[in-house]
User: What shape does this take?
Amino acid sequence: MTKEKKKAKKEPTFEERLARLEEIVEQLESGEVGLDASLKLYAEGAELIKVCRKDLAAAEQRIQKLTESAEGNLETEPMEMEEEEEA
Amino acid sequence: MSILFDARDVPEPQDEGPETVWALTRRIRDVVEVEIPQVWVVGQVSNLKRHSSGHVFFSLKDDRASVRCVVWRSDADRLPGEMADGLEVELHGRLSVFPPQGTYQVYVTRVMARGVGRLEVAFRKMKERLQKEGLFAPERKRLLPRFPRTIGVVTSPTGAAVRDIIQMLGRRWPRARILLAPSRVQGEGAAEDIVRGIASLNRAGGVDVMIVGRGGGSLEDLWPFNTEAVARAMAASAVPVVSAVGHETDVSISDFVADARAPTPSAAAEMVAPDAREIAAGLEAALARMGRALRHRLDGLRQRLAMAERSRYVRHPEDLVLARAQTVEDLATRLAGRVRQTAQAGRLRLEGAASRLAEHAPRAQRAAAEGALRMAGHRLAAAGRTLVEHRWRARLDRLAGRLQDLNPDRVLARGYSRTVLARTGATLKRAADARPGDLLHTHLADGDLASRVTEEGGALADKPPVVPGASNDRAAQAPRRRRRSRAKRDDDGPTLFDEG
Assistant: This one.
């Protein structure tokens, strides 16, 4: 898993965002960054946090069943969970 | 009209109609107990359970069939100590039917251990082989991804396992998509289903991790997860596998091969997914930390600014200029003074050097040298003269002295005389030169004497008397001194007296 942000096309993964956030916090806490840079970093960090929060909150569980057709093709279909099935 | 069955198969109807289950069962029992009164069978023990009542239950099996066995409490103590699943045993017993469940079982009277059952042996061999191939090696095990986007599951679509997994994932990490590859998890065909399920999840693509497992059950029930086929399928999977088979204490081969082992399916779900709530809390913490860090920074800067504002020069900037100006003045003065000093010192040194240099000027030096040379010459000459005088004088004195000694007058004064042969006029040196009758003139210190030689006189002619200091004595006396200047004199006599 790469940590660098890819160019515009590819969206960073959740993991990549978290990693970048960790980086930002460390830099700000280190106190070695100039004032202007600090403000920019803070803004970037706040934005990342917003996106990640939304990401976590919006999640809705998707359950799919994977089956193989007679020809050997894979098919997925949504699956409904039955209640209280016999073990 | 369709006929469901052949009329010939229908049993003779009883007078009362169809028999009861109990009646049927009783008939079966009768047949069984009569036809097979004694049982002597060999097989492998499986599913051994000691009931709380004290009775012991197990299955005796081979690769195709199994039969239930019961050991009464009273006989249980006599069971062989090594009695355990996998043990091959020979047993004696009675076959009977257990009506409530419609099953037949062996009421065991005697059990003899035979060693490890063939099936067990085969299993152990297989396990060893897989281990030797390195399938269980810790280095093979991959790390599970931190934030999986798609989680695969190979298990029964019905049953507690899949429900538990879905519930757990729904609580912790609903973000992830769950992709289920449905499979039988016990009995015939289960191993193949599991193998196929693992392969499908690999083919589907995008699956970050998978859980393979089932809920609790007997050893037989769990057996598919002990097969070589399933083990190899897990080993070959490009997607990391978490094995979750049965309960905490159940360990199967899949547990060894998988990248991770979970005691139950729920635990597997926990292992595989992060807790979103924890992450959310982490985000809040990160926000707080960033805020603190920034505030800290700003506070620091504000403080520095305040301090700077308080500083004298900010309030009275002109002071800065004044102070500077003063310093400049001061420095200028010091500089001027220094320059003068330096110049002065320089001039003095220059003059000093010049005069010293003059002393050492070539012309002066040459004159001085010449003077010194002349002086030296004089001194040398003087020294030379002195030396020469000294030496020559000494020599002269010495010679004069010797001369004095050799002064004939002195010699004569001492008693020596010179005799001349009148005939020849030469000084007589040798007695042999004088013949008897010759006239001799003898010069002494105060006068002369004339004399005539009387006779040759043998003794006298041959051996003239040696008078100290006489001519014939000189040979002994003087030769050493003479020898030094051989060029002028000869050894025989003083050249001073030589006339010829």
